[in-house]
Design a protein that fits this description.
The complex is a heterotrimer of chains A (about 650), B (about 475) and C (about 120). With about 475 residues, chain B is mainly α. Helix content of chain B is about 75%, strand content about 0%. In chain B, helix 3 packs across helix 20, helix 7 crosses helix 8 and helix 9 packs antiparallel against helix 11. The chains are: A mainly alpha (about 650), B mainly alpha (about 475), C mainly alpha (about 120).
């Protein structure tokens, strides 16, 4: 089916051009009107084409739109062409929908910022690039979007460049991403070299792929691993995740949109898109799963001890992205995309909520100076709580379904293992702990801010709280499209994506995998209940240490003279808990963060930069400016080359 | 009178006479109006382009002059770079050059004529003459700020090393002549192959010839290790001349390289016939250029020096396509140079404008430029991002083709290296952008640009965006040039 | 390689003859240096001051202009000899050639190069 799909990315592009070219000549109202309308129109067109797609029979759900031939050079035939299939449809709706909500929110959040026009210009460019990325029907065009979002991310992280850390963080993100891109490009070259095409239709056709690549062969493994390197850059996985925590220097809506909901999930999308190739490289799948789950627990544990509200969320994002990769690695691509979608809702909500808090706190991001905001900002609090419940996986909310799906698949899939499941489970516990720690520290307890800030505390304006509420609704209901069989649903989300996941289909066809999944119904249920219980326990622990304990300590001080023994006894129990559970967690977390994260991985990447930079300085003496030296080097060059050539020739 | 088809060199004749006219005009008019002379020069270049379109296609002067697609393609690049260099030099002429204004433009045109003859040379001697005619005016132009020590030094350095490399080139060419008995490149290809197959022991003489010619042309290209002159000369020369050096003169080197190596020494490009082929030698030099150019650029504080090292690195990327010796290889190199024209001329034009207004070339002084001159900053960002190869700007497509050609020809290691160094290159390009956009602003003045410079900037940006999104016409044209070599 | 052997021999002999002549001269010449004899030869005049002095740029420019017309003359001779066979085409070509050179002279004149300052 052919439809004018180009309409989807067109409007943000127009918005970008209008706002960009007329920068400084438009009023704030006009700017935000242009920006929001353009994204809104994208969303509406996305919806329209989505329903067109639904009207097609299951097997033929593809809408194409060849815009024009981009590169016509003989064997290089690349079109600017768009492809809407179930996978890209989900992405388009998530991207344009969440973007629209965040655009609206930004009107309020950025209201007093000097760079208002610049902000919306970049934001529109971002939406355009992201839509190009997900709508592209070939790798090259996808790469164009891929780089475009990277550029926007760079511009937006460094948006508040008065802070030196911000512009440095922007540059770091840009360059770390380029390292990933290097892998992506090389992988792309290999695919082109072998299959002769970069079109998804050809290169990702199981028949073509199987005719040129050997399953598990070196070439396919290399190609998929290199592309995974690209994904680790964009989606902030070990070892290239270092840029994401720093990226929090950008405005909070940007963190919500780019560094939580959309751009960082591009890597997951790319791998799900390439599932045909990945399924042919079991070694790569193992790497993806291991890197994913390792990142999940690693980042999750770092989040335990962070005091900056946005940093907790940043590490949490890295951790959740790890989940998505784990899903891809165990061949549960649709579960990964499912989690991508629900995560987009609740993580965007969490960031926007934290933005609302920071807004009210006049820029304060340290949770140690917050507390008791529940009464002051009820809407923010309740929406934030919903998102927190969703991310921790409380039954009935969206995160529960998607996270549980991933855990179950990592346990039951042929590619999974009990260890992956176990680590995933522990991470789920950690998630519950740090998220509720965040909620309790921020919204409960004493008000620890200074009096000046306290006086100015206020709930955010409607333009900010309405988007929060919409996202809260989505965070609740978003999961109901994919209720698993075991709970009486029929996992429509997975069914919907099935035509795209040809690789999975191809390998399990006629095999026992599907049957065994149904067989293990009771196991699935047990695991599900187990994870819910674990989450509940960790929530309680957070409650215990960040609410109850503090209260107990307060009482202790009051009744200093009475009931020694009981209090002492209680204190002792608390101490024990504290010593056995909390302190190791905090110390371990701090260790991972300070030593591993900051020192080793970050240090390695910065160190590389320093070394290369020093080489640059080291090369200077040769460029002495003395003509005699130059001629000598010229001549020596000739002689050395001649000598080498004559000796080896 | 056999084979004197003068029609084919009408564009060259016209441009040459126009150069004389420009000088005479400057001489004859009492009221010196530099702008008028500048526009006349630009007009002359445009007219030459039209003539080129009318009179091309064919061979004349017994194979000495070939007006084939390759020549045509590169002549467009030369005229483009001359046009943009002249366009961005109006303020310099008005402010810094009091005497000999007409000669400035005249010499640019003379050099361009040399490039054009070079591109059409089907034979070693006319190739050499073309090369000299290209270079000698540039010696003078590099030293055009007579009272500026750095500029004079630049001119002198360029002259000495140019003469030096010219001698080496000539030696190499004479060896080729001695071995093949002809200066005609096509005949040379045949004779060398026959001679190599029939005789033992010419291997080392041929290798010497190859290395010497490589050194001679490597000087024009600023290919490592023949690049040492470039940073100093680029820094000292008037900025539009630097731009011309880095684009036009380099493209001339590229086309000379193609004529001699891909055509004349075609048989010795890979190891089938020859144990140590020039393909591998050039690949190693390209690798060295990419590493050294990119790494040296990192810590540069002067924008012209930074761009000098960047252009050393860029030629490394070009050579990746060159060693492929294939249709895609030749086509991608042509495309690369064409795109490089827009990006590099544009970047230098901004540097010129900035210097005219502030008198500074240091990267640090670009801080906060985006506030005072948002348009020019945006343009500069586009030029630099294209040089770094960020899609959808044309620089990305150019790099993509060159690398694809390299992969196709089996130079995987070189492409991996190229991609890695491209990561490094982003660092210093982004650094300028960071300065313009993300640095607390110095009190920068709003930049005033003459109309001609605006034209140059708009051509540059339009070229990068249009040919990035829609590369078809240029790419087909570039691939068409590969027919010249029989691919 | 064989044909290059003769070149090599030629080179060696050439260098050899020069060295041999110097050697013979050294053998048979009288050796009697005195002050006047060691002086730099300058057209039989007694040299004044150091020979490392700055020359006026104009010398070079005059010389350059002279060289141009020198070369022109070199071209004119063969042209004149073969003029009978070449016909009108060659006449026009030579007129253009000379016109360009005349323009050069005019240019130099106008720029004041020919005026000795």
């Amino acid at each position: 089916m052919e439809q004018p799909l180009y309409l989807i990315p067109l409007f943000p592009l127009i918005g970008f051009l209008l706002n960009g070219l007329l920068l400084g000549r438009l009023g704030k109202k006009t700017i935000s009107f242009i920006a929001c309308t353009s994204v809104g129109l994208s969303f509406l067109f996305g919806l329209k084409f989505f329903f067109d797609l639904l009207s097609l029979p299951d097997t033929a759900r593809i809408i194409e739109n060849v815009f024009f031939t981009w590169i016509p050079a003989g064997q290089f035939h690349v079109n600017v062409a768009f492809l809407l299939d179930p996978l890209s449809a989900v992405m388009v709706l998530v991207v344009s929908g969440v973007s629209f909500i965040i655009h609206i929110y930004s009107i309020g959040y950025m209201h007093d910022d000097a760079g208002y026009g610049r902000y919306f210009t970049y934001l529109n460019l971002f939406v355009f690039s992201m839509l190009m990325l997900v709508l592209a029907d070939n790798y090259l065009l996808m790469f164009v979007g891929w780089e475009g979002v990277g550029l926007c991310s760079y511009l937006l992280i460094g948006f508040w460049f008065e802070k030196k850390s911000a512009s440095d963080a922007g540059k770091k993100a840009f360059i770390v991403n380029r390292i990933g891109d290097f892998g992506f490009l090389l992988g792309m070259f290999i695919i082109f070299w072998q299959t002769g095409s970069l079109d998804f239709k050809t290169a990702l056709d199981p028949a073509v792929a199987h005719s040129v690549f050997a399953v598990g062969g070196g070439m396919i493994t290399a190609a998929t691993l290199l592309m995974f390197l690209g994904a680790t850059g964009k989606s902030a996985q070990i070892p290239l995740y270092v840029w994401l925590p720093d990226a929090m220097e950008g405005p909070t809506p940007v963190s919500a949109l780019i560094h939580a909901a959309t751009m960082v999930t591009a890597g997951v999308y790319m791998i799900a898109r390439s599932n045909v190739l990945y399924m042919m490289a079991p070694a790569t799948m193992a790497v993806v799963a291991i890197v994913g789950v390792a990142t999940a627990i690693f980042a999750g544990s770092i989040a335990l001890a962070q005091n900056d509200i946005k940093r907790v969320l940043a590490y949490s994002t890295v951790s959740q992205l790890g989940y998505m990769f784990t899903a891809c690695g165990v061949a549960a691509f649709s579960a990964g995309i499912f989690h991508l979608m629900t995560h987009a809702f609740f993580k965007a909500l969490l960031f926007l909520g934290s933005g609302s808090v920071i807004h009210a706190m006049a820029g304060q991001q340290d949770m140690r100076y917050m507390g008791g905001l529940k009464k002051r900002m009820p809407i923010t609090f309740w929406t934030f709580l919903i998102a927190t419940l969703a991310i921790t996986g409380i039954p009935g909310l969206s995160g529960f379904f998607s996270k549980d799906e991933i855990l179950w698949k990592s346990f039951s899939s042929d590619y999974g293992s009990i260890w992956i499941w176990l680590i995933g489970l522990i991470t789920a516990g950690m998630t519950a702990f740090y998220m509720f720690r965040l909620v309790f520290l921020t919204f409960y307890g004493e008000e620890r801010m200074d009096s000046h800030t306290r006086e100015h505390l206020h709930e955010s304006p409607k333009v900010m709280t309405v988007p929060l509420s919409i996202l809260a609704v989505l965070s609740v209901i978003g999961g109901y499209v994919g209720i698993p069989h075991i709970l009486g649903g029929d996992n429509r989300f997975e069914k919907f994506l099935e035509p795209v996941m040809k690789g999975v289909h191809h390998s399990v066809e006629g095999e026992h995998a599907l049957a065994s999944a149904a067989h293990n119904g009771s196991t699935e249920l047990i695991l599900m209940v187990g994870s819910v219980v674990l989450v509940a326990v960790f929530i309680y622990l957070a409650y215990h240490f960040y609410i109850k304990n503090i209260a107990a300590a307060g009482k202790l001080r009051q009744r200093f003279s009475g009931l020694h023994k009981i209090i002492y006894g209680k204190y002792f129990v608390d101490e024990l808990y504290n010593a056995v559970i909390v302190q190791p967690l905090v110390v371990g977390s701090k260790f991972l963060w300070k030593i591993f994260d900051v020192l080793i991985i970050d240090g390695f990447i910065n160190g590389m930069a320093v070394i290369i930079g020093d080489m640059s300085t080291g090369l200077r003496p040769a460029q002495s400016g003395i003509l005699r030296t130059y001629t000598t080097i010229f001549l020596v060059g000739v002689i050395v080359i001649l000598g080498i050539v004559l000796i080896f020739g | 009178m056999p084979d004197y088809n003068l029609r084919l060199i009408i564009p060259e004749i016209f441009l040459f006479l126009w150069a004389l006219f420009i000088i005479a005009f400057d001489l004859g008019t009492k009221r010196k109006n530099p702008k008028l002379i500048g526009y006349l020069t630009m007009g002359g270049i445009a007219a030459t382009a039209v003539l080129l379109y009318l009179y091309h296609g064919g061979i004349s002067f017994n194979n000495m002059f070939k007006s084939d697609p390759l020549a045509l393609f590169f002549k467009v690049i030369f005229l483009g770079s001359a046009f943009m260099a002249v366009g961005s030099s109006f303020d310099i002429i008005a402010q810094k050059i009091k005497n000999h204004r007409g000669e400035f433009f005249g010499l640019v045109l003379f050099s361009t004529v040399g490039m054009m003859f070079l591109a059409s040379a089907g034979e070693l001697i006319s190739l050499y003459i073309g090369l000299e005619l290209t270079t000698i005016p540039l010696f003078i132009l590099a030293a055009y700020y007579k009272d500026d020590r750095i500029s004079v030094e630049a001119g002198l350095k360029y002259l000495v090393i140019g003469a030096f490399s010219s001698a080496i080139l000539l030696y190499g060419l004479s060896l080729l002549y001695g071995l093949s008995g002809t200066t005609d490149i096509v005949m040379m290809k045949i004779n060398l192959a026959l001679l190599y197959l029939n005789t033992n022991g010419i291997g080392w003489a041929l290798l010497m010839a190859i290395v010497m010619v490589l050194a001679g042309i490597g000087f024009k290209l600023a290919l490592v290790p023949f690049h040492m002159w470039a940073p100093d000369v680029y820094q000292g020369a008037p900025t539009p001349i630097t731009a011309l050096l880095s684009v036009g003169s380099k493209a001339a080197g590229v086309v000379a390289f193609m004529r001699i190596f891909i055509d004349g020494l075609y048989g010795f490009a890979d190891a089938v016939m020859f144990p140590l082929d020039w393909g591998n030698i050039v690949a190693v030099l390209a690798a060295a250029a990419m590493i050294l150019g990119n790494i040296s650029a990192l810590r540069q504080k002067n924008i012209k020096r930074m761009l000098a090292y960047s252009s050393i690195a860029q030629i490394g990327y070009v050579m990746v396509g060159m060693v492929a010796v294939s249709e895609l290889g030749v086509g991608s190199v042509g495309y690369y140079m064409f795109i490089y024209l827009f990006a590099n001329m544009g970047a230098f034009a901004v540097a010129t404008i900035f210097n005219d207004n502030t008198g500074s070339d240091s990267i640090a002084s670009y801080a906060g430029l985006s506030k005072s001159s948002p348009m020019i900053s945006a343009f500069m960002a586009i030029f630099l991002l294209s040089l770094a190869g960020i899609p959808p700007l044309a620089g990305f497509a150019a790099k993509f083709f060159v690398f694809a050609a390299g992969i196709q020809a089996g130079y995987t290691w070189l492409v991996i290296l190229a991609l890695l160094t491209a990561v490094v290159s982003l660092y210093y390009y982004a650094n300028v952008i960071k300065m313009m956009y993300f640095a607390p602003d110095n009190p920068t003045i709003k930049l005033n640009t003459p109309l001609s410079a605006n034209i140059v900037l708009i051509i540059g940006v339009a070229g990068l965006i249009i040919f990035g999104v829609y590369p078809e016409p240029i790419l087909n044209f570039a691939l068409d040039t590969a027919r010249v070599f029989g691919f | 390689m064989d044909q290059y052997l003769s070149v090599l021999i030629f080179l060696l002999v050439g260098v050899g003859i020069v060295l041999f002549t110097f050697f013979i001269a050294r053998l048979i010449r009288p050796h009697n240096p005195y002050k006047e004899k060691n002086q730099t030869y300058e057209c039989a005049e007694a040299p004044v001051g150091n020979s490392w002095v700055k020359f006026n740029n104009h010398f070079y420019i005059f010389a350059l202009i002279f060289v141009v017309f020198d070369v022109e003359a070199v071209f004119l001779f063969p042209w004149a000899v073969a003029f009978g066979q070449l016909g009108l085409f060659a006449l026009v070509e030579m007129i253009i050639f000379i016109a360009i050179l005349v323009f050069g002279l005019y240019y130099a004149w106008k720029k004041g190069v020919l005026k000795w300052v």
